Amino acid sequence: MDAIMLQEKLVERLLCPRVRTSRQKEKQYVGFATLPNQVHRKSVKKGFDFTLMVAGESGMGKSTLVNSLFLTDLYKDRKLLNAEERINQTVEIIKHTVDIEEKGVKLKLTIVDTPGFGDAVNNNECWKPITDYIDQQFEQYFRDESGLNRKNIQDNRVHCCLYFIPPFGHGLRPVDVEFMKALHEKVNVVPLIAKADCLTPSEIKKLKDRVRDEIERFGIKVYQFPECDSDEDEEFKQLDKELKECCPFAVIGSNTVVEARGQRVRGRLYPWGIVEVENQSHCDFVKLRNILIRSHMHDLKDVTCDMHYENYRAQCIQDMTSKLTQDNRMESPIPMLPQSTPDVETDRLIKMKDEELARMQEMLNKMQQQIHDGKDQ
Amino acid sequence: HYYCRQSESIGSTLLGYIGIDTIIEQMRKKTMKAGFDFNIMIVGHSGLGKSTLVNTLFKSQVSRWSSGWGGEHKIPKTVEIKAVSHVIEEGGVKMKLTVIDTPGFGDQINNENCWDPISKYINEQYEKFLKEEVNIARKKRIPDTRVHCCLYFISPTGHSLRQLDIEFMKHLSRVVNIIPVIAKSDTMTPDEKNEFKHRVRKELETHGIEYYPQNEFDDDMEDKNENDKIREAMPFAVVGSDKEFQVNGKRVLGRKTAWGVVEVENPNHCEFALLRDFLIRSHLQDLKEVTHNIHYETYRARRLNDNGGLHPISANNTQESNL
After folding, report:
1. Residues 81..110 of A with a Cβ closer than 8 Å to B: which?
2. Residue A6 to residue A298: CA distance in whole angstroms
3. Where is the site described as Important for dimerization found in this chain (chain A) (predicted)?
């Protein structure tokens, strides 16, 4: 069976649970088995959102891949900078938002682009603007979550970061390792091998093995696909295994449609042949798309909320309370952020601290004076 | 005092065949016996197919790595200079080819001044030659380790040159012959390739980077016409390979993918053949001459000037000089 069909079957199973229709069992049937259905209906009404970050040097085909994944043209009016214009450019963060609707399901997709990354001669800490951005989104969410009006929280947290590894190397470069290590505990990192059509099949395999090896060696925690449930059928498990062994995905994107084997497909036309983006024997684009959109979008969001965000939050609270409880004062019940607008509670605490400090300073002065006087005599 | 009259040289019709033209043949025989030296440096960040291309160009395993990259490609922490020499022979002509690799270039996170070791190496070779030249008892043929040509590999991003590319070429185009090539060009479709080449050429022009063959060194109109054509076609978009495949009944060097075979020597697929003809079949000697007559002389003049007009070596007193 087709991989896509299998995965769609899975989605169906999640949304439409088996319902006992036998008459004899009607008495015991309560009806909450339809809960998933209800959740489904509500979320369809509300719509989904997903924030995807793309990172990698310029010229890796990031924009083309995003367009191919979501069948949009987000970068229509983009102007490419030449090397001179890029000299003083630091890494920027640019957001593109697009609303996509398919079969009644609405998706608000946000693509976070990171132009300038890795392009300079000196790329020391070029990932800092990116980690800062991710932290800012967490902080924003943290504040909103602790605020009063929580009905319409905007979730701008980054759910997944596609990192583009150049195919022209012999594995991970220092900048690749450093970037992924700076981000692996803040966001789901999915490494990709970009522009894979310049590699032969054996070269791709070698490169993938090498990258997987180095990821393990350097302790980089890339996004792990969850284990499939033990009650799935064998075929599904096999596909799942294949998917995991395929990482990092070797991808190709295209903004153009070409004629191949009698059909019009997205592809690239070379003098020696035609590369089809959606042909699984040409590249892993379909696998990536399935993972990202059809099967793991929700898991990516869950891991972001349950792991990365919670880690951030715990760290934040710890930092904050350690500052306040230095002299065993009461723990603040409300999470306070250093730069937040001062509210009554914060003001009170600050005032108390100030008074305490003033008192201590006065005591110190008195003691110093005493010592000084003592010396004179 | 004596009186000398210089007669004008007049073209005289020869009454018979003398054999002056055989001097060309004599020269040829002598140079063939002596053999040629050629030193080529390859620069570009790791993974751009530099070693494969050099092997393909000279149809021998002349780079540091044997074919296939099963070897340990560890990125060194600083730029290293590794020179490997091989003697290759063709048609009775022997060539001592030295390939100078520069692993580590452009691979670090901070690549500032990563071209310094390269610049230093090139100048050291000029210095070595200069020292030999000013010796009293000079060798008949001074061993020539000067870099005759520097192949600079541009990453085929499809956008434009990278900052590092511009910095490197700016710093070194006045010191050595730089030939920029677009590496692994099978990653671009023909249209993308043309646009990229056009953008790169414009950028090189904007930054005043004179790549080889340099405009200012064209000897005559014939040279200029030939070189103009070459300059317009550069940088050459190349693909390298040391594997052969069967295509239409012929065995060709190429890369086999799921959608076709990229033929290295097919001009519709890439410009490898153009690069090879240009580098080896027509301009090999010129590269050496420009290095000797221009780059080396510039270095020598600068050393003389730095020394206040005195011969540079005399200040060192490291060996007897002819001053």
Report:
1. 81-84, 86-87
2. 17
3. 168
